[in-house]
C-alpha cells in the first residue's frame, strides 16, 4: 500500500502531552518526521474557538492528529458527565472546523470503542455504530466521540476533505494517568497493587465481579496504527471503508476478563496478598471486543503482548513522578 506522509510535512498533534498524543509524537519522530507542531494551553486553548482559529492561521499545517480529549474511567465519567460531553464536543468542533477553514485536507480523529452500543454483537464491527443504546456509565463521553466521527464524515461529504477516524480499544502504557480515583482500569490496578505491596497489605479489592471482559492495546501499538492509517493513500483507505462508515477499529482482537487482568497485574507488580472482588460496584459493559479485520486488511496488526506491555508500563510508573503522589 502506498504512503502519502512525507518527512517534511508539517503535522500538528493536538493533545501531545497526553498518553496517546505523546506516543504519536514519538512514533512520528522515530519515522523521520521533523516538522511536528505541538502547543500547550498557553499557546492555544482548544476549548476556545477564536484561540484555535488564530493558531491555525499562524501555522502552515499539512496534517492534524486530534488526540486531545478529556478522558477517565467509570468513576470519572460518572462524576463529571457535563465536563466530559462539553469539553470533548468543543475541542472536536473547534479543531476540525479550524482545520477545514485553514485548508488542511488530512486530519486523523481519535475516538473510543465506547461509541458502540452496550449490547452490540461481539466482536464489534464498525457498522454497529448507532445500532442500539449506549452504556449509561460513559454515555456523555460516547456521544461526544460519535459526534466527532460524524463531523469528519460530514466535512468529507460537503467539502471533500480527507478526515479519518480511528476507534481504539482500551489503551494503556507510558504516560498513563495513575490517579487513585480518575484513572482507567490498568493504571488503577497497577497503583493499587503497588501501594498494597509497599504497605504489606493482606488483600486488594477490585471493583465489580471480575467477569466483565475487556480488550487492551499498548499505546505504542496505537500510535503505530495511527501513523499507518493516516499515511494510507486515498484509494487504499476507501477500499475498506464506506462514506457513512468511515472509521476504523484499532485493537488486538483478543480480550480477557477483569479477573484475568487483575491476576496478571498482581503478578507483574509482585503483590503476594489476596485478590478480592466487590460485586456491589459496577462492571460497566459486559464485553467490549473490537472486530479489527478492517485494520488488518489495511496492513496493520499489533506487536506488543499484554504481559510484555504491563511489565513495561509498571517500569515506567516506578520511574515517574506519579509513584510519589
Protein model, in words:
The protein has 325 residues and is an alpha/beta fold. It has a domain of 222 residues: Rossmann fold. The protein has eleven helices and 13 strands. A six-stranded parallel β-sheet has the order 2-1-3-4-5-10, sandwiched between helices. A three-stranded mixed β-sheet has the order 11-8-13. Helix 1 links the parallel strand 1 and strand 2. Helix 2 runs parallel beside helix 4. The model has no long low-confidence stretch (mean pLDDT 94).
Task: List key phrases describing it.
3-stranded mixed beta sheet, single chain, 15% strand, alpha/beta, GDP-L-fucose synthase activity, Rossmann fold, isomerase
CATH arch. level architecture of the domain at 11-176 and 216-253 and 288-305: 3-Layer(aba) Sandwich
Helix tally equals: 11
User: Remind me, CATH topology of the domain at 11-176 and 216-253 and 288-305?
Assistant: Rossmann fold
Total number of beta strands = 13
Question: Which spans have pLDDT < 50 for at least 5 consecutive residues?
Answer: none
CATH superfamily of the domain at 11-176 and 216-253 and 288-305, please? NAD(P)-binding Rossmann-like Domain
Q: Helix proportion of residues, in percent?
A: 40-55%
Global outline: globular
Q: Helix/strand-derived class?
A: alpha/beta
GO molecular function: GDP-L-fucose synthase activity; isomerase activity; NADP+ binding
Site (Important for catalytic activity): 112, 114
Catalytic activity: GDP-beta-L-fucose + NADP(+) = GDP-4-dehydro-alpha-D-rhamnose + NADPH + H(+)
Binding site for NADP(+): 15-21, 110-113, 145, 168-171, 184
